[in-house]
Fold 2-isopropylmalate synthase.
Amino acid sequence: MMLKNPAAKYRPFPAVPLADRQWPGRTITQPPIWMSTDLRDGNQALIEPMSPEKKLRFFEMLVKIGVKEIEVGFPSASQTDFDFVRMLVEENRIPDDVTIIVLTQARDELIRRTVESAVGAKRAIVHIYNSVAPVFRRVVFGMEREEIVQIAVKGTQLIKELVAQHPQTQWGLEYSPESFSTTELDFSKQIVDAVGAVWQPTPGNKMIVNLPSTVEAATPNVYADQIEWMCRHLDNRESLVISVHPHNDRGTAVAAAELAVMAGADRVEGCLFGNGERTGNVDLVTLAMNLYTQGVAPGLDFSDIDAVRQLVEECNQLPVHPRHPYVGDLVFTAFSGSHQDAIKKGFAKQQPDAIWEVPYLPIDPADLGRSYDAVIRVNSQSGKGGMAYLLQQEYGLELPRRLQIEFSRAVQRMADSTGREVVASDIHALFSREYLEQDRPYDYVAHRMVEDSAHGVQIDLDVTQGGAKQACRGAGNGPIDAFVNALGLDIRLMDYHEHAIGRGADARAACYVELRVGDGATLFGVGIDSNIVTASFRAVLSAVNRHLAQAGEQGAPVARAA
Ligand SMILES: CC(=O)SCCNC(=O)CCNC(=O)[C@H](O)C(C)(C)COP(=O)(O)OP(=O)(O)OC[C@H]1O[C@@H](n2cnc3c(N)ncnc32)[C@H](O)[C@@H]1OP(=O)(O)O
Ligand SMILES: CC(C)C(=O)C(=O)O
């Protein structure tokens, strides 16, 4: 049961004393160093950890999209993890511009095994961690601050000693005071400075100081304050790479990472699509694409984001949510009428090389290799814009606005009665039934037409009426006028639109007419034919037949009074 008074069990996170904080006034103008921990933090959180084959495919994909720092595992955890790192090294799988990182607890035997795993790599970073927060000091380690500092210091000393024995590898150190964000800042500084004093980094050979929110416990501004505080107070800042490793327990890891970068972080650790312990690590894809939509090149290439997602889903055996930013199945889809209307207008106005300004779409799906197919989908929440967009995209039909209004009522009825999504082929089938297959009682058969400036248009027309062939003749000041006169129909042409469908020899004409038949209401007819004039005749008959079908026997007559 939720408590009536949660304050009896939970306490608010204290603010950071940083009155002159600078980060709120900053903007991000370049990407951080990206570090993927998919193969470590991501992998350790999977129901079934990845096989070596999957890890390798994942590694190669990370390389392909441009990640330069990849945490490849926890080699002392298992033979599988150890062998994977050895395989990368021995089979020369690590490109020259990529650095691998191997994680270890600050325990002697684990450190030895970890260093051993990476020997022979061109470059490798040994990542050592120990938890420093009060609850860990008390509950997990049963140690005072100074003893906790000694764990990190002794671990670093051992690493320094071991890596010195393998100078063919260019070694780096990453130190994580685990659970940094729930630790007193002065203690985090004390332990990081102590590690730095052992490792002795220089501006040319920096040490990575990774400041994780191991469990996200406060609003992102608090994390940003903590990062800015550390950047200002740590010894030898110019010799350090400040890294962040936000988890997503409160659902704000992306915001925390972004504010932390504004606060001075140089590097971000995370996983693709936010895999990782519990609610996951920060999602590197969202971070990168957020930068991209601000006009900042992220240095990671998600031009085929669906392929990346597919591989990640396969390796992690976890689905990516349909609403996941940038990649989810539904994130570029509008069902609702007003969104569809604005998107359709936005697409029509958007120039190919101009700044992207399509309402409701923060990014051009094409930049991510995604198609426009799913941008607009139709259900009972949709308006005319949605179905018009689908008919245009899928079938090349450009319905005039008033026809959109007329036809959308039929689509709405269909969506309401099924209660389901109506796909483009359903809409087209309905459109065909409603307009194109209206061949009773009148159906077009053939015509011959002569036109001269003195007499206008003369037409000989063959139609069927109720199945019976009928030949008639008429004249008028244009083809439609002559056609209507030949049939003796009581109709007035209110509006006319035409356009080509397709190009070249296969091109056809689509013609839309709005007619008033007798005293009845106005309604549309549509004709499609390889001949533009025939298309217009078919459109007229479509409207007349629709009128007769709707009006029934009581309807207005279509034949002119004698
Ligand atoms: C926040 C993070 O994600 S950190 C990374 C976590 N990832 C993993 O743990 C995955 C891989 N880990 C493993 O497979 C195992 O933990 C192993 C093989 C590395 C070690 O297993 P075990 O030897 O059984 O130790 P275990 O991990 O349970 O740790 C317990 C002991 O290590 C100590 N310890 C835990 N973390 C650390 C650390 N970072 N540095 C030093 N000591 C540590 C604990 O205090 C405890 O000590 P105690 O036995 O004296 O009480
Ligand atoms: C090892 C550290 C960086 C970690 O995974 C965490 O704190 O979440």
User: Anything to note?
Assistant: The pocket of acetyl coenzyme *A (ligand 1) is lined by residues 41, 44, 74, 76-77, 105-107, 110, 129-130, 140-141, 151, 178, 214, 277 (CB under 6 Å). The CA atoms of residues 100 and 335 lie 44 Å apart. The mean pLDDT is 95.
